[in-house]
Amino acid sequence: MNIRPKILIVDDKPENLVALEVVLRDLDVELVKATSGNAALSATLHHDFALALLDIQMPEMDGYELASILRDEEKTSHLPFIFISAVYTDNLNVFKGYEKGAFSFITKPFQPEMLINKVKFFVEKHQQEIELKTLNESLVSANKELEQFAYVASHDLQEPLRTISNFVGLLNTKYSKDIDSNVEQYLSFIVDATTRMQNLIKDLLILSRIGRDEPSTTIDCNKILEEVIADISVALKESNAKITYSQLPLLPGTEIEFKQLFQNLISNAIKFCKKDVSPEVTINVKETDQEYLFSIADNGIGIEEQYKSHIFIIFKRLHGMNEYAGTGIGLATCKKIVSLHNGRIWVESKVGKGSTFYFTLPK
Ligand code: ADP
Asked: Which is the closest atom of ligand 1 to the Cα of 317?
């Protein structure tokens, strides 16, 4: 349905309103007339206007006064005006600080074409703003739906998977004597696939939970790092990894998400190591006026230049499962966490030398 944009025209002289109507009659707009400031204010309660044409010289409330009242009302705070006046006045200080381009002047007598063009400009601008707003709202809602779907789907998929692994476990223990080597191999394939699927679902759940109702508090990044190191202590020991880090700051954010961010980046720094070289991970932070710049550097396999941005996309992996295990969700999760905290994340790397992941977080 095409809703015609509404224009408010205000003039204390009815004959001037009729004259405006005649000039604007070919435009696809609806005109709402008011012969006083008060009548105009009451019209704004019942209509949403794209533009207001205001006569400046009116008794009781002049065009400027009316415009500043409209500007202070939430509903009409963004309403653009065209002031129409017999004399050009520079009484513009009322509009100091007002959005540039949101008002214009026309002095009488005016060329009809000039008024028509100005009105067209504001109406088109208004329609573009509405389109953008609608598009934005539908994007936000589609995104929310998608996140909700991912959350519910990954949550519900866990149950049948648990059943499969329980029964494979039962077959292995109860019927071990009757199972030949072929069946044993098939069962181990099922167990591997189930484990991979469980990891995928776990990571998808983590990703879909990011940004959900977690309260923002002051986070001590040193404490977070200590917890992460304790959580991955087995992997650290097995790979003989060394982690060095400087004093980290306290920051506003969500604890679970910061932990996830550090954990993903440090785990990757250890996982993507060179054969027969113990991983060395260095965590640093630099402070600027507005933000902290964190870096997590490793001495691992590195990343080719052309894949540096790809790896932040969900499921993008540069290696087969047999080389390095993983789900391809970790860095997408990091990106979402950093973006939600109004930061940026990127990587610098040299193949065969190592990678440094950088991320910023505002203070
Ligand atoms: P996963 O680690 O589960 O594969 P991620 O989303 O964490 O998924 O990472 C995506 C890909 O980016 C990895 O598969 C790997 O190819 C590459 N990558 C991530 N971190 C590093 C790193 N520190 N060194 C080299 N490559 C990395």
From this structure: 14
What is 6-110's CATH topology?
Rossmann fold (3.40.50)
- CA nearest ligand 1 atom 20, residue: 268
Nearest by Cα to 32 from 15, 53, 12, 13: 53
List Cα–Cα distances, 78 to 52, 82, 125, in angstroms.
11, 13, 12
CB 48 within 8 A of CB 54: no
Q: What is the DSSP string of 136-147?
A: HHHHHHHHHHHH
C-beta of 343 in contact with ligand 1 (< 6 A): no
Report how far ligand 1's centroid is from the alpha carbon of 318 (Å).
7
Ligand 1 center–CA 184 separation, angstroms: 32
Q: What SS3 class is residue 76?
A: coil
Pocket test for ligand 1, best of 195, 264, 272 (most atoms within 8 A of CB): 272
Interatomic CA distance for residues 101 and 112, integer angstroms = 21
Among the residues of 37-111, which ranges form H helices? 37-46, 63-72
pLDDT in tens, 133-190: 999 999 989 888 888 888 888 888 888 999 999 999 999 899 988 888 889 899 999 9
pLDDT in tens, 196-247: 999 999 998 899 888 876 778 999 999 999 999 999 999 999 999 999 999 9
Q: Please indicate whether residue 80, judged by its CB atom, sits closer than 6 Å to ligand 1.
A: no
Q: What CATH class has 217-362? A: alpha beta
pLDDT in tens, 120-142: 999 999 899 889 999 999 998 98
